[in-house]
Amino acid sequence: MTRPAKERRKHLRAKGAEGLTVGVEPQAPGVPVRDISLSGVSFTLDAPVEFMTRLMMTLVFPSGRSPERQPSAPAAVQCEGAVVRCDPVRDGREGCYDVAVFFTHLEDSAKEAIEEYVQTH
Predict the structure, then answer these.
(1) Residue 101 near residue 84 (C-beta atoms within 8 A)
(2) Could you please report the per-residue DSSP string of 31-92?
C-alpha cells in the first residue's frame, strides 16, 4: 500500500479564478493564472522559457468587494521571479508550456494581495 505524498509546500496555494492574470513582459501581456501562493505562480505560455530566467511580472487580481460591500477595482501588483519549471502542456495543445515561477522579490503590497486572494479562494 502506498502512503499519500506529504505536502512539502511552505505556503497555501489557490487555484486561479476568472480575472486573475499575470503579465510577463514582453512575452505575454496577460495570461490566466493556474495557481498562486506566496512562494510563486504558475501559468501557461505559448513559448518555452529557459530554466532560471528572471521575469518581471504584473499580477492583476479580479475585482472583489470591500468591507462596505462596494465593488473594488482590480488590484495590480509588480513582482519578480525565476522560472523553476517549463514543461510542454500534456493535454494535446501544441506549442503550449506550463511555467512555474518562484517569487524572488515581492513588495509588501504584493504579499498582502496574494495572501488575501489565497485566503478567499
Answers:
(1) yes
(2) EEEEEE-SSEEEEEESS---TT-EEEEEEEPPP-B-TTS-B-PPPEEEEEEEEEEEEE-SSS
Q: Find, among 26, 34, 87, 85, the residue nearest to 58 by Cα.
A: 26
pTM of the model: 0.77
C-alpha to C-alpha distances, 70 to 19, 36, 73, 83, 114, nearest whole angstrom: 18, 25, 10, 37, 20
Which tens digit of pLDDT belongs to each residue from 75-86?
A: 788 899 999 999
Q: Is 95 helix (H, G, I), strand (E, B) or coil?
A: coil
Residue 102 CB neighbours (<10 A): 13
